[in-house]
């Protein structure tokens, strides 16, 4: 007996939902706050036995911005997922969360405006020693911009493949990218890495201070100061 042929067509959204909820072998992958997509894709390639260059190629095609799009979080993915699915899932899920957060925190969503906030949050993420310091670092960024001072923050230079590279005077002299906040005023147009929700909140809601400088102390936290003279004293205190 010839049975009629039926073709089921799933939308992309339904496909992602069905695949992510299927009874397949799943594996978790975590993007830690501050890490760049460059190293995250390397970790994905290792865990899921994928080709890094292919993941990078698809990421470059799909992602609206170079970094900061995939939010710091733990993601559960099918173990045998294709490179296309992995990148599509991570970006689609993250962009939805970005939009939801924007509506929650700002009351509206404008992608260009929002990712300017993400660029600021990415510096806060790398510079703050803990969550409590984040709104204070955010205030330093705003205060320096208000005075037309360069941010001069090492964290912005830990972008892309330089995520784990120590920032040296030579690096500061030679790096001509937008991320060199020693050479260029303001916040880079692009995020320098992944961000947490805490860093986003700090970028939007800075503490009101007069601080212009901060220096990591011997306890691993930062001493914040209003004047360069105070800042120099803190530098000497750490070196002695």
From TrEMBL:
InterPro entries the record matches: MLTG-like
Gene3D superfamilies according to UniProt: Classic Zinc Finger
Record bears the keyword Membrane: yes
Keyword Nucleotide-binding: no
BP GO annotations: cell wall organization
GO molecular-function terms, A-Z: lyase activity
Swiss-Prot/TrEMBL keywords: Cell membrane, Cell wall biogenesis/degradation, Lyase, Membrane, Transmembrane, Transmembrane helix
Stated name of the protein: Aminodeoxychorismate lyase
Lineage: Bacteria, Pseudomonadati, Campylobacterota, Epsilonproteobacteria, Campylobacterales
